[in-house]
Amino acid sequence: MGLFDRFRRPSPGSAGPAAVRARLEGAMAKRRLRGWNPPLENINALVASGGPRLLARSRELVVTNGYAANACEAFASNLVGDGIKPSSLIEDAAVRDYVQRLWLAWTDEADADGLTDFYGLQAMVAREMFVAGECFVRLRPRRAEDGLMVPLQLQLLQSEMLPFEKTEVLPSGSRIRCGIEFDSIGRRVAYHFRRRHPGDSTDQGGRVIGDVIPETVRVPAADVLHIYRPIDAGQIRGLPHVAPAMVRLFLLDQYDDAELDRKKTAAMFAGFITKTAPEEPMLGEVEADLNGAAIASLEPGTMQVLLPGEDVKFSAPADVGGGYEAFQYRTLLAVSASLGLPYHLVTGDVRQANYSSLRAELVEFRRRIGQLQHGVIVHQLCRAVWRRWLEAAALSGALGLDDPAAARPVQWIPPRWDWVDPLKDIQAQVLAMGAGITSRRKVVEATGYDIEEVDRENAADAARAAALGLSYRTGSGETQGARATPATQPDPGDGAREHEHGDAAATESATEQE
């Protein structure tokens, strides 16, 4: 290498040795990183080995820890709210209205346990995603004599019902991985569910085949919906949403309990009596306890006269200090970041929040929630249920269509977002519609309603108001319906005030024009 080559600078498109080393700093094995040697394992191997323990700890944490329980409810309420609802895209208005009404009637019968409706099942699925990372929905066809509007119901199964440890190769060449059966090209063909929940001691039933009670039952994959968020390519089972924050929540809970017990114990000791002659009995001394230490009874507001040689030292327990709240705040802030939830939704603390900070964090949070709504809940649950429901309705004759595929086009409307300042948001939406930036359909659907249902209700309200001779004043000053009848006329005082207000508004408008 010549002198010129030795000092030649790298071209703008190339990277020198120093830049390459900087990029690969995480792969170095120097003193600081010598102890960092994580195994290069696939996520499925990690889930298979640590899944049961992770799941058990997650369920206990959500039940016993207040922050985890509150975060679980906040996650579910924001993910599905009162339900992600369908809006049929059938062109025929009469058929579309009939399909929507049939679906609405069926949602009340959707739960196989009869405890909630279809949208309540969505909330249960959302909670299971937070706690267990996954939920299984079994599609249960019903008989005609069951008397259902559409002979189909949904049964929710917890993650524990599919054994993590069931991994084997079948004689047919199919493979079972963590309870899921795959064919030779990697398609899911069946799920091997347990007959009973492994932690339910109240369920002792079981069907005997010969002398052996089968542990699992094979259910075709066409009858099972596996709802989970895959975070890695090739992932076959879900991970709890609370997993990144579990350790901090558990240790913080222990710390809070220890601090509370310490303060409680310290508050029980008002003072300690010291004696120069321990062999002499104390005034008011009672029998020694099991450890041999004498206890003197104390009552609130009592002053005890001591014998010569005795002294009293009052208890002065150490306080938690000024750093306790700051430590709690930083720890819970890290927990909130691990959960992907705003701090105030996890803790309920809005003391350090204002309009700008709340709006900034809610916008980012709702982007994440929107991703889960459309990529997981709608794609894995709602679309599949809608397709199977159409098939069941067509086969039973309830749909009234020869081809159920004609009714398949549908869009799913998530629940509306309630903003911090709804007036400004509505005004912004009205301006966007007037400028042609968005459509009225999108604005209405953003509120969680179907635009066609809203239009029908508006038309019915207007017709009813006109038939009754009612008149309402809107925000723009326009009236809806016919002029009010004398029976519905306001009192003279109100009319005078409205007249004065109208004159003042007219004067102000004329002034602005000048």
UniProtKB/TrEMBL annotation:
Residues 471-514 are annotated as: Disordered. GO terms for biological process: virion assembly. Residues 494-503 have a biased composition (Basic and acidic residues). This is Phage portal protein. One of its GO terms (molecular function) is structural molecule activity. InterPro entries: Phage_lambda_portal.
